[in-house]
Amino acid sequence: MQPLLVYNTLTHSKELFRPLTADHVGMYVCGPTVYGDAHLGHARPAITFDVVFRYLQHIGYKVRYVRNITDVGHLEHDADEGEDKIAKKARLEQLEPMEVAQYYTNRYHAAMDSLGVLRPSIEPHASGHIIEQIELVQKILDAGLAYVSNGSVYFDVRKYQEQTGQYGRLSGRVIDEMLSTTRDLDGQEEKRFSGDFALWKKAAPEHIMRWPSPWSEGFPGWHAECTAMGSKYLGEQFDIHGGGMDLIFPHHESEMAQQAAVTGHGPCRYWMHNNMITINGQKMGKSLGNFITLGEFFNGSHRDKDGNEMLQQAYSPMTIRFFILMAHYRSTVDFSNEALIAAEKGYDRLMQAYKTLGRLQAGKTSSAEVTAYRQRCYDAMNDDFNTPVVISHLFDAAKLINSVGDYKATLTQVDIDELKSVFDTFLFSILGMRNEDAGASTSLIDGLVRIILDIRADAKANKDWATSDKLRDSLGELGVTVKDGKDGATWSL
After folding, report:
1. Domain boundary among 258, 274, 290
2. Closest Cα partner for 223 from 190, 250, 196?
3. Do 145 and 188 belong together in one domain?
4. What is the tally of structural domains in the chain?
5. By the 8 A CB rule, do 238 and 28 touch?
6. Rounded to whole angstroms, how far apart are CA atoms 133 and 220?
7. 49 and 93 housed in the same domain
8. 179-to-59, 162, 174, 195, 250 alpha-carbon distances in Å
9. What is the CATH number of the domain that holds 371?
10. Could you list the residue range(s) of the whole structural domain that residue 257 is in?
11. How far apart are CA 116 and CA 323, in angstroms?
12. Are residues 188 and 314 in the same domain?
């Protein structure tokens, strides 16, 4: 098998993947700010790094995957202005901020579960790591790269740049130009330079979410949480830091600076960023008001600000997942009903081929193509997790399967078993696709068992114990355990 290549945003090149510790991978991915329902833009990083997580485990690594929940400190504007997004939602809905955060965290989990996204190894909350963030801020102050202003603490970007010349390295921003063209104190009187970012913000009197610190009662800046939690759970340097491209600046650039101020190096070896979901060429996001929630995709109803229906039909979770995986994670994906319908058809085509595979009668003639599919899929995954190429190879396999199903070709039993293994490995295990018909089958089983139990209940009511026992015993022979209780019978497999 060829070695794994990963595109590193920091070096703008594919690099051979070498973890810091043999056989172990530490991966941190920026999670959601939980003040609203997850939309298609949230699904993309979740699915992208779910596949990375799955594949690294598949090829033998023990992976500690940390994905945070931002429930404090992310203000309305990246320039440290405006209200905390969650606090604003709480004020508008007359709820406790943590009530808002918990509600949308639960809904985020439900949406991700439906998309087949595995839960991370650790899911820390920013509000649960205030102490670690205060300690981080103090270390940056001790290093002389931050200053206190009116109870808030800011990272001194100019001083950091003078000492290291590194600010802007990840994002490609030319900070020297920014320093010479951006007017100081541009509506942010507390800062020495408008490009400085908040490490700790003093809370205004009306601000609900606040904690004591050496500088004021307040709350941490948005960038501090990931540096503090990444270090706590993965160490001062780990292997992969992931997120959407919209986080490269200012969030990840600021994370790099914070970590380097304390340790002398960035937080990770490989920066990975997925590209955006766009709609009519514009980034889909809450701030732009052009987003479609995952729930709306699943039920097929969404109207834009002008009242126009944006969805032609409902789309299943696996259609959404397949739609995202049909493009390489570093390329943009533009939303359209046509693209989603094409993804739905492609997904159905692979599912039908897999079903056909289970019905094929083995022949005596083998196909030379069969033995190549597995290696081709591995080669694609090892080339920076190239899921669309994997899918193209699975479509090729599906074409062969359908030819055999139509009696235009033959496969030996060894070939059939190999193709089933390829589908099980790449389509289901690594790409994380799920046969949604399985859910329908579960519903069908449940309905049939309930009908039998209702007939058994009638038999018991008529004291027909022989029929009652026969139905229970017959279900037992099929692997269905029936338990009688005061509220009626229950069953389990």
Report:
1. 274
2. 250
3. yes
4. 3
5. yes
6. 7
7. yes
8. 46, 11, 9, 8, 15
9. 1.10.730
10. 11-274
11. 14
12. no
Q: In this structure, is residue 5 part of a structural domain?
A: no
pLDDT by 10s per residue, the chain, length 493: 689 999 999 999 999 999 999 999 999 999 999 999 999 999 999 999 999 999 999 999 999 999 999 999 888 787 788 888 998 898 888 889 999 999 999 999 999 999 999 999 999 999 999 999 999 999 999 999 999 999 999 999 999 999 999 999 999 988 766 655 554 444 467 999 989 999 999 998 888 899 999 999 999 999 999 999 999 999 999 999 999 999 999 999 999 999 999 999 999 999 999 999 988 778 777 666 778 999 999 999 888 777 888 899 999 999 999 999 999 999 999 999 999 999 999 999 999 999 999 889 898 888 888 999 999 999 999 999 999 999 999 999 999 999 999 989 999 999 999 999 999 999 999 999 998 765 445 456 767 887 898 899 888 889 899 998 898 888 888 778 787 865 577 676 6
Give the strand pairing for 81-84 and 282-283: unpaired
| CB neighbour class for 47 (10 Å; exposed up to 12, middle 13-18, buried from 19) | buried
* Cis, peptide link before residue 250, omega less than 30° from 0: yes
Residues 409 and 467 in one domain: no
Q: Which amino acid is at 161?
A: Q
Q: Residue 267, by phi and psi: left (phi above 0), alpha (psi -120 to 50) or beta?
A: alpha
Place of tokens 């997850």: 38
- Reading phi first (left if > 0) and then psi (alpha if -120 to 50, else beta), residue 399 is in alpha
